[in-house]
Amino acid sequence: MDVETFLAELKDHLTAHQIILDREGLSHFSYDATEQRFMPHVVVLPENTQQVSAVMRLAYKYDVPVTPQGGRTGLSGGALPVHGGVLLSLLRMNAIIEVDEKNMQVTLEPGVISSDLQQELKKHHLFFPPDPSSTVESTIGGNVAENAGYTRAVKYGVTRDYVLALEAVLPDGEIISLGRNTVKNVAGYDMVSLLVGSEGTLAIITKICFKLLPLPLKRITLIIYLNDLVKAADLVVSIFKAGIIPSAIELMDNISINTTADHLGAPLRREAEALVLVEIDGHHEGALREEANEILALCKGIEGLLEAKIALDDTESDRYWLIRRETLPSLKALGKDHLEADVVVPRYQLPFLVKAIRALKYSPAIKIATFGHAGDGNLHVTILHRRRNFAELSEAYTILEEVYKKTMEMCGSLTGEHGIGITVKDYLPLQMSESEIALMRRIKAAFDPKGLLNPGKIF
Ligand SMILES: Cc1cc2nc3c(=O)[nH]c(=O)nc-3n(C[C@H](O)[C@H](O)[C@H](O)COP(=O)(O)OP(=O)(O)OC[C@H]3O[C@@H](n4cnc5c(N)ncnc54)[C@H](O)[C@@H]3O)c2cc1C
Predict the structure, then answer these.
(1) ∠ CA 445-451-457 to the nearest 5 degrees?
(2) Is the four-CA dihedral 356, 385, 149, 69 of positive or negative sign?
(3) CA-CA distance, 453 to 204, in Å (whole number)?
(4) Which DSSP state fits 271?
(5) pLDDT of the residue at 1
(6) Do the domains 96-214 and 3-89 match in fold?
(7) Which of 104, 218, 242, 282 has its CA 20 to 30 A from that of 249?
(8) Ligand 1: does its nearest atom lie under 6 Å from the Cβ of 330?
(9) Is the Cβ–Cβ distance between 90 and 43 less than 8 Å?
(10) What is the per-residue pLDDT for 2?
């Protein structure tokens, strides 16, 4: 790589305030939510697609690696410049270009913060369901690149289900438009879906068009405490068996409950082994009340129920959903290191996954917190340890591998929403055959023959 000549020519395309070279500035962009750190040679902050294209063209010419980055909330290290080179931050491309109420669509740049989009759409009485718990920091571009999930994915699907069209810049600087702003489109291969979830390894996403839904008018939250985590998983399965599709079903185990209660000062039932939060939404209060009562009746039939109640009002609902959203930050605030398995299994396997996690043997120095999107069969198994203590670190990795192996036995996936990045790539062969990985490598080479875009990720 010829960084010196690259930098000399870069100044013809970007202004001085769009290029960061000082150590403190570089350091700010060198880490993400994995808390791993890799220094880039330079950070660039383009403000439009032409500038992204110019950076890519130059980087391609001088063999300089480029790592795209959004809000740095990624949990698999996808936005870390592991090979140095250019860190391309999309944070300044943050315009909501058009809210098209007639077609129920929004077109926007990738650097828009997730919660800013949510606020804007509320003004138009429109609903964009994908809203990860990292909403106040994550960007739309990062969500698309990771195919982010969120609490309501159980009813509304994941980010990919809302992307109609994309503009992107290829590693050699060419600007391409993919997809159409139509509800249906089956012309050719589904290139939009290929880019969604590609973790910034195929192209830089510079513009996105999402489809939207009408805002649901009513919602009810149920708060359910149990004294057994497996019974809680059984309850999740039985709600679906009863023909009810909630808009969210989330699970927190005893460690998650207590850690979040401590961190937020929230009055949760600390003796409970499980807290299940269920949300149902729609347009008719009466129909929702009926479903909520059905869920309460199901709860009463479950041995180990401590309490099941309907939240009094939106304020109480919001309080519980905030508690759930703050689970990971609360665990992080404990000051321990954490390894996280973002595993997902077919929903009916959830009780078996929970049993397998409970059966793990580990020393008292290690703690395992389990929480997540139970309605999707997606749990975040968080192994708390001290990285500097070699015995604890190696034990944590042994547990992580065991969780992955159990997940594979249940026909699940290594990651439901956080991606492969650098943290899961060594385990990919547990899930994918050699030929499947080879095919992915050929796709990567077709987009990025020099291997310069986000190198060291996924493979
Ligand atoms: C507290 C907390 C809660 C979270 N909750 C959820 C959750 O509910 N659901 C969920 O799915 N995830 C969750 N995450 C993980 C993370 O927030 C998501 O993966 C999010 O989508 C990442 O967005 P970001 O803007 O921070 O991306 P970054 O971390 O900056 O980047 C993520 C990946 O996207 C690529 N990328 C970023 N922008 C672009 C672009 N414009 N073009 C091409 N590639 C790009 C990067 O190269 C990288 O590979 C959570 C994380 C935290 C810390």
Answers:
(1) 100
(2) negative
(3) 9
(4) T
(5) 75
(6) no
(7) 104
(8) no
(9) no
(10) 85
Residue 227 · residue 192 · CB < 8 Å: no
Residues 401, 414: contact at Cβ < 8 Å? no
Architecture field, domain 335-429: 2-Layer Sandwich (3.30)
**Residue 437: per-residue pLDDT:** 98
Look-up of token digits 């919660």: 115
> Scanning the structure block, which residue is given the tokens 């960007």?
139
Task: Return the structure tokens found at 126.
Answer: 């429109």
Cβ–Cβ under 8 Å, residues 342 and 417: yes
pLDDT above 70 coverage of the chain, percent: 100
Helix (H/G/I), strand (E/B), else coil: 215: coil
In 279-370, which ranges are continuous DSSP H helix? 285-300, 314-325, 327-332, 350-358
CA 270 to ligand 1 centroid distance, Å: 31
This prediction's pTM: 0.96
- Measured in angstroms, how far is the CA atom of residue 199 from the centroid of ligand 1? 9
Find out whether the beta carbon of 132 lies less than 6 Å from any atom of ligand 1: yes
State the first-to-last Cα distance of the chain, in angstroms, to the nearest integer: 21
Nearest CA to ligand 1 atom 3: 134
What are the domain boundaries of the chain? 3-89, 96-214, 218-328, 335-429
How many Cα atoms are found within 13 Å in the side-chain-facing hemisphere of 79? 29
Q: DSSP secondary-structure letter at 399? A: H
- Ligand 1 within 6 A of 90 CB? yes
Nearest residue to 250 (alpha-carbon basis) of 149, 349, 145, 142: 149
Specify the CATH number of the domain 218-328: 3.30.70.2190
Whole-number pLDDT of residue 345: 98
Low-confidence ranges of the chain (pLDDT < 70): none
Q: What are 37's strand-pairing partners?
A: 31
According to the model, what pLDDT value does residue 153 have?
97
- SS (HEC) of 114-140: HHHHHHHHHHCCEECCCCCCCCCCCEH
Decide: 37 and 424 in contact? Cβ < 8 Å: no
User: What CATH class is the domain 96-214?
Assistant: alpha beta
Length of the chain, in residues: 459
Contact 21, 42 (CB under 8 A): yes
Q: Are residues 222 and 278 in contact, defined by beta-carbon separation less than 8 angstroms?
A: yes
Residue 179, ligand 1, Cβ within 6 A = no
Residue 104, pLDDT score: 97
Pairing of β 248-253 and β 305-310: unpaired
